[in-house]
Amino acid sequence: MKYIITVGIIYWINLIAAAVVHADYIYDLTATLSPSSMVTIEQQPHFYEMYHLVADGEATVTFTNYDADLVSPTDNGEYSDPYLYLYILEELNFANINAFSRAYVLYDEDDDSNEGVGEDLYFYLADVTFTNELVAMVTSYEPMTTGTVDFTIESDTALTVIPEPVAVGFILVGGATLILARKRQ
After folding, report:
1. Domain boundaries of the chain, sorted by first residue
2. How do 38-41 and 49-71 pair as beta strands?
3. Domain spanning 24-184 has what CATH number?
C-alpha cells in the first residue's frame, strides 16, 4: 500500500511540475502615447512608446491589445486605432569602445484595423518567434494621437521587458561604465 501511495505522490508531483514548466508568462503593459516620443510615419508626426524585449534564446510571443483610450486632434476619435510594429536586430557594429551601433529591421506589424476583433480597435499578433531580442513600438493610425494603449504579451519563456526611456538609461550607464573601466586599465 505504501508503494502505491508513494507512486501516486510522485505522479502528482511530476504532473504539477509539468504544468509549471509549460506555463506561459503574461506581461500586462500600458503604452502611453505622448509628444515626448515622436516618430515620422508617411511625413506625419506620430507619438509612440517602445519596449525592448529580451529572451534567453528563442521565444514565441503573442501581443493582444484589449483596451485603448486615444484622442486625435484630427478625427474625433473615429480612427484612433492603436498599431503595433515589431523590429529585430539586423546588424550590430562594434568598431571600438567609442563606436558601436545597432541596426533594426521591421519584422512584423499589425496595422490593419482587425475588423473581426471588437469595434475595430485592437491589434493582435500571435505566435511571433524571435531569438534573444525584439523591439515593439506601439503607435496609432492617426498622427498626433495621445492617450493610453493597454495590451498583454504572452510568452512561452521568461522575458525582460524594458520600456524605452529605461532602455536608453541602461545603454548610457553601460557605456559610461565601459569608458571608465577602459580608462582605469
Report:
1. 24-184
2. unpaired
3. 2.60.120.380
Kindly list the distances between the CA atom of residue 72 and the CA atoms of 54, 83, 113, 175, in Å, as whole numbers in the listed order: 32, 14, 16, 38
The x, y and z cell numbers of residue 112, run together, are 490593419
pLDDT digits (tens, 9 = 90+) for 114-167: 555 554 457 889 999 999 999 999 998 888 999 999 999 999 999 999 998 644
Question: What does 125-138 look like in DSSP terms, one character per residue?
Answer: EEEEEEEEEEEEEE
Give the C-alpha separation, 104 to 86, whole Å.
10
Name residue 85's amino acid: Y
Q: Whole-model pTM above 0.85?
A: no
| Cell numbers found for residue 11 | 505522479
- Cell readout for 181 is 573601466
Question: Using one digit for the tens of pLDDT, what is the confidence trace for 12-52?
Answer: 555 454 444 445 899 999 999 999 999 888 898 999 999 99
Amino acid sitting at position 69: D
* Rg, the chain, Cα only: 21
Amino acid at 2: K
Nearest to 63 by CA among 128, 160, 147: 128
